[in-house]
Amino acid sequence: MNKFFVVLSGLLLCMPCYGSRNIDWAASGWLGDVNPLYCGYHNFPDACIGNSATDGCRPYGLPAGKNSNTYGILVMMARKITANGALFCPTQIDPVREGKNLWTIYREPNNNNTCVWLCREGWTGSKCSVKVTESFSSGCDVIPFLRSNYDNARLHYGGENIEFEVPLFRVDNVACSGRRGEYDIALLVNKWLDSGNGAFIRKMMVRTRREASGDASTIMVYPATNSMDVLVCKNGYRPNASNTDCEPIDATACNKAIISSKMCAKWTLSAYDDTQHQYVVDGTCYRYSCKEAGYAFVSETDHTCVECVTDKRNGVHPTKGTCVKCSVGEIFSESNANNSYCSVAVGLTKTDLMYGRGQTKNTNSDLNKQCWIQGDAQRYRDCVMNGGMSEEVKIKTINLQIKESD
To answer: Which terminal residue of the chain, N or C, has fewer Cβ atoms less than 10 Å from its own Cβ?
Structure first.
């Protein structure tokens, strides 16, 4: 506000007042009718952001400097309200005091100023302008709407007062404990969803309070009388049947949108075909493969699925999805990436299988180093291929046998 707050106080009793250019008053009834609650106390424990998001979301002291005894808070506040949704942005609310008079100002916080449209039930799309019952091409918002997205938002001094950009349902000037102050009703995110698909919003009171001791002033945020939480969802989502979370309007379309944003390098969904392909998680990204067993891509560029003989010499490339055909004398091996997934075939005799490759009873006479006594499949394989049990593995095996017998 400004120094003419007291002079204007009589005008502030009107409704709508400040910020009304950002509210569709004729159609904002979906948020419910509320009444102001004067002289209330801070009750906003779960939804503040940035460096306000600790210690029960109580207002933080600003950095040392001018008016360093004032305490502001960072919230997600509606900047535009329409018939079907609202645009929520990080907002800093600060207290201002001149003599006994108190009021609030609104600023952009430092760092993260990312805004998100959240839609009421039945609406989605750009600016919540598309009915859910209609087909819409705006897809799904693939970025989770989480409180942690705004961890780097910071309170700061200075900056323009953006109060006239903030839609306020009501602005009053009321005396409380002998001090007149401004009371605003604003629309804030009140609860976050773990899914990141939306949030609960609520009409909240915002006021400045001068502390009993000293000159400190603080912002107080608490629910307006008769206000209720309203579930709103990001683009491409709608409230679930129990009204406790937001779910995809079209699960297939949303999954495809999410996956397309996390495709592995050199992979796109332009050639993806639901009838023959399936998604594959590859570490932290997605690719796809042929869904039918024994089928592979024609080539790295042609992802049509064709039959691929899978036997000892042939198989499907584990990352490219193409058919691998090993030469005579080689076998297909998914673990041998260094040799195009083909390994030299090794012929083993009955003697090799008993005493180790290249060994006989005479050359490997130590019973504990012979392979046929190994009960574990991996130890047996290592023993055969390594020409008998090594001393190190032998010791580990003996220790394991002793432990198992205890």
So the answer is: C
